[in-house]
TrEMBL record:
Disordered: annotated segments: 36-64
InterPro entries: SRFR1-like, TPR-like_helical_dom_sf, TPR_rpt
Keyword Transmembrane: yes
Stretches that traverse the bilayer: 21-39
Record protein name field: Tetratricopeptide repeat protein
Alphabetical keyword list: Membrane, TPR repeat, Transmembrane, Transmembrane helix
Native source organism of the sequence: Streptomyces chryseus
TPR repeat copies, ranges: 155-188, 397-430
SMART domains recorded: TPR
């Protein structure tokens, strides 16, 4: 394995000005011959298999919440046991969207730190993962730095470090952390992060290769499900719903109640024109975990079919979630910003995006900010953020569509056509509402030449 730098989480929002593509490509040449992945905090992460190396409980490092609870009941003064339980709660909360589980995670991790205040890298890693899941990436970074200082050889600590750097827009630092994680232990979690690093750079073939390696290295159902989910998403993002459907169904045979796999299958069905199956899978995913991107995906699919009343039911749930989010003072997520821009008040979406960008300068946040500004009529400002969202070379049909509409509003039809063609080449079914509009806009532009 060679090189530096790897980073998580898909194309997101540039709080700070990103390095240009030339820099990204130069880094890419040195990066990995084996991988890196930057994970979105809005989706379950691959299991941090070394979060507490030597995790107690049945099932070894991947002990269940139940087994770990039994362990700390038997050995209540075991700091590693409490740290392992805390990390298990973090994983559970990210999969179920249950805020109470985050509180349980924090309680377990604080118990571990009270029992062992110094050099407790397991609990420090868990606190970093918890803060990342809560979208407090500055705090996540601080905890991850403590964990890597306590144990520079902990792959999981470097994974959390990479995730935080990615969301903070510090991509070079993130790439280095993923490289270090992969060097220490080329397992399912590190190879998944490596995959995402290449995905961020638009190297989908390399990302797919590394995610396939992550799947082969997986020993836990959670890791296997994660790999199948992301292989399905990579296929969708290259316009291949048949492969996406196969990957999702393979994963669901082992984990039939995995909400991320159900959502991936829903999207594959929708791209294939099987709308009834898509609605059924979205509905099943929401019943397990009412995550915002599931609700938005189902609502916009129903809206595209003219089922406005059903779509409004999903949108009302999203509005209720947003009210709770605003009341808690937590930062807005990308899906909330896009929802507000498209189905609410664009000026409010701008304010949400501006606040999010200050604390999470990730390329996807830049894209959401760009779209909110565009919908509010501030097209020149929008273009600057749209360019930042694509600065790493990420292959995203949605990002290109957003920039195309901004170019169109600025009167640059040639630039708009380039981005529209790029979006539809990447994935002709990228969005139930925007993909048809992309086709229509392109035809109209061609007709008026």
């Amino acid at each position: 394995m060679q090189g530096p730098t790897a980073d998580p989480t898909p194309a997101h929002r540039g709080r700070r000005r990103l390095r240009n593509t030339a820099v990204a490509l130069a880094l890419g040449a040195a990066i990995f011959t084996a991988g890196a992945v930057g994970l979105s905090p809005d989706r379950p992460s691959p299991t941090v298999s070394s979060a507490s190396q030597g995790r107690p409980g049945h099932g070894g490092e991947r002990g269940s919440v139940e087994a770990l609870r039994e362990h700390v009941q038997r050995l209540p003064r075991d700091p590693v046991g409490w740290a392992s339980l805390g990390m298990a709660y973090v994983q559970q909360a990210r999969a179920t969207a249950d805020p109470a589980t985050y509180a349980r995670a924090q309680s377990a991790l604080q118990k571990s730190l009270k029992l062992q205040p110094a050099d407790n890298y397991q609990a420090q890693t868990g606190m970093g993962a918890l803060q990342a899941a809560r979208h407090d990436f500055t705090s996540a970074l601080n905890w991850a730095k403590k964990a890597t200082a306590s144990n520079p050889s902990s792959p999981a600590a470097h994974g959390v470090l990479a995730d935080a750097y990615t969301q903070l827009g510090q991509y070079e630092a993130s790439f280095r952390a993923v490289q270090r994680m992969t060097d220490l232990r080329p397992d399912a979690a590190s190879l998944a992060r490596a995959s995402y690093t290449w995905e961020l750079r638009g190297e989908t073939a390399r990302a797919r290769e590394l995610m396939t390696r992550s799947l082969k290295a997986a020993s836990a159902t959670a890791d296997t499900s994660f790999a199948h989910t992301h292989l399905a998403l990579l296929a969708l993002e290259t316009g291949d719903p048949t492969t996406a459907l196969r990957e999702a169904e393979t994963g669901l045979r082992a984990a039939p109640r995995d909400s991320a796999l159900l959502e991936a299958r829903a999207r594959a069905h929708a791209a294939s024109g099987n709308m009834r199956q898509a609605v059924d899978d979205y509905t099943a995913a929401i019943a397990i975990a009412p995550l915002p991107h599931y609700l938005l995906g189902l609502g916009e699919l129903q809206q595209s079919q003219g089922r406005r009343e059903q779509a409004e039911a999903q949108y009302e749930l999203l509005r209720a979630q947003e009210r709770l989010r605003a009341a808690s003072g937590a930062p807005a997520d990308v899906d909330a910003i896009l929802f507000e821009a498209d189905h609410g008040r664009p000026l409010r979406a701008v304010a949400m995006a501006e606040a999010a960008c200050r604390t999470r300068p990730f390329i996807a946040v830049h894209d959401a900010y760009a779209w909110a500004l565009h919908k509010a009529g501030r097209h020149a400002q929008a273009l600057a953020h749209a360019n930042q969202s694509l600065a790493l070379g990420t292959r995203s049909a949605l990002f290109h569509y957003h920039r195309a509409k901004i170019h169109q509003a600025l009167g640059d039809t040639n630039a708009a056509n380039r981005d529209l063609k790029r979006a539809l080449t990447i994935d002709p079914h990228f969005h139930p509402l925007h993909a048809p509009d992309a086709h229509t806009t392109l035809r109209r532009n061609d007709a008026t030449r």
